[in-house]
Amino acid sequence: MINFASYFSRNVKNTLLLKNGVNLAHKGPWVLVYPNTVIDEWYVGDFMSAEYTVSVDFGNNEKEIIKCLLVAGPDSAAVTVFGRSNLNSNLVEFTATVSASKVSLIVSPAINDNSTLANGSKLIFSAHYFHTMNQLTP
C-alpha cells in the first residue's frame, strides 16, 4: 500500500506540499490527433475555466509541449496558448466551442513548415479546473 504521507504534507494556506524529490509524471492514456479531435469536455455549471499542459509526440523528432487556458460561459468559449516549445514546428492547433452549456476543447493537426499535417500525433494532457463561482441564471 502506498504511504501518501511520504510524498505529501500539509503546507501554508491549506496547500498540498510535495516533499523534496517528489515529481509528477504523465504517460497516458493518449489520444490520436486528427482534425477536430475533442480532448476534453465539461459543463459551465461545473467549471468556468481550466489550465492545460498538453504534450504531443509525432515520431522521433517531432515533439511539443503547450500551456493553454480555456474560459467559458453558457454561450461562448475562448482558448489561449500562452506557452509552447517544440523541436521543429507546431504540431497542433486549439479551438473551443460551447453547445448546450457543454464546453469542448478541440485539437487539430497544425500545418507545419513543409505543408503537411501531423495527423496521428499522440497527445496527453493534464488539467487544473476552476469551479464556477456564480450560479448560472436563465
Quaternary form: single chain
Low-pLDDT runs: none
Number of domains: 1
* Full CATH superfamily name: 4-oxalocrotonate tautomerase-like
Order of strands, widest sheet: 3-10-5-6-7
Overall outline: flat
Please, could you describe this protein's structure?
The protein has 138 residues and is mostly beta strands. The protein has a single domain, classed as Immunoglobulin-like (Sandwich). Helix content is 0%, strand content 55%. The chain has strands at residues 8-11, 15-18, 31-33, 37-43, 47-57, 63-72, 77-86, 92-99, 102-109, 121-131. It has a 5-stranded antiparallel sheet, with no helix packed on it. A hairpin with a 3-residue loop joins strand 1 (8-11) and strand 2.
Short note summarizing the structure:
The protein is an all-beta fold and 138 residues long.
How would you summarize the topology of this molecule?
Blueprint: E1 8-11, E2 15-18, E3 31-33, E4 37-43, E5 47-57, E6 63-72, E7 77-86, E8 92-99, E9 102-109, E10 121-131
Antiparallel strand pairs: 1-2, 3-10, 4-9, 5-6, 5-10, 6-7, 8-9
Notable features of this structure?
five-stranded antiparallel beta sheet; 0% helix; three-stranded antiparallel beta sheet; Immunoglobulin-like; single chain; 138 residues; mainly beta
